[in-house]
Amino acid sequence: MKYLITGATGNIGSLVTERLIGAGATPCLLTRKPEKTRTVFGDRVEIRLGNLAGSRTDLADVFQGCDALFLINIGPHLGERDRTCALAERDAGVRHLVKLSTLDVETGVGTGPWHARGEEAIRASGVYHTFIRSSALMSNALSWADSIRDDGVLSSSTGDGKIAFIHPDDIADVVVSILTGREPRNESPVITGPEALSYRRMATAIGEAIGISVRYETLSDADAMTDALLWADHAYAEALVDIWRAIREGRLATVSDGVQQLLRRPPKNFGDWIDENVGYFAKKAGRSQ
Ligand SMILES: NC(=O)c1ccc[n+]([C@@H]2O[C@H](COP(=O)([O-])OP(=O)(O)OC[C@H]3O[C@@H](n4cnc5c(N)ncnc54)[C@H](OP(=O)(O)O)[C@@H]3O)[C@@H](O)[C@H]2O)c1
């Protein structure tokens, strides 16, 4: 089997790539930054220069000779990019497209409508597909590190609403099991972490791990938008505020047994993730762990 991986320099694609290499494969990586990608993976991968914003013809050339594709597209135009990739995949004769999607396709919140358009386009192309509808990543909590570490505070507009963040390792394990182990069945598995938790609870747990008390402050949607615009473009900031509002209103507390069903083991919990990442929260201030 030849695997074509996109997003290999990002959060999930990098974990998927390492797992495939560990299983003895030499995955093909679509990248617009070949030097950066080569620095990360050396000669353990095959680099294929390409751009997910490129044309159907160019992408079909990149996909040639591959059996399965792991697709990560980002941004408000990801639906159009998913469509072009699916058509290019069909042209190139790739058998299975595995798309990292979001649970929010089912709630219509945040980036859900972007991914819903992508899923619909892939379905319409007729290619065999799996849409992995994931909840939000535990690693999103890394964006809390500066404020927890420097000020002992977490501010958000999620109030006491809860969400079942998922460990990135679980997403990667699910992706690899589907890429390598299953006949494509045009499925859309929902995967989440094991337990829905409030941001306050998660911040408290991080504080306990680094030996400080973390105060939780509630932000208005308007203030959350102002903060998000410091690092995100307008469309993404709006999507984030929509997600945070939905958490606050109790609309994103879904817990699924998808990881257990697909991997025959329970999902990792937020405490596991903290143990692995505690250094991001503690190191600069020199606080003991
Ligand atoms: N964060 C969450 O909580 C969450 C939850 C569920 C689903 N998702 C979905 O997960 C996806 C993001 O996954 P991630 O966090 O692993 O990604 P990420 O860390 O944001 O990385 C994005 C990857 O895509 C590549 N890329 C971006 N534009 C490209 C282009 N035009 N051509 C080729 N490559 C391009 C980047 O490569 P370069 O090195 O070239 O920049 C990078 O490798 C999104 O679709 C998001 O909606 C996220």
UniProtKB/TrEMBL annotation:
Pfam hit, one: NAD_binding_10
Domain named NAD(P)-binding: residues: 7-180
InterPro entries xref list: Ergot_Alk_Oxidoreductase (IPR051604), NAD(P)-bd_dom (IPR016040), NAD(P)-bd_dom_sf (IPR036291)
Protein name: NmrA family protein
Naturally occurring in which organism (per UniProt): Rhizobium tropici
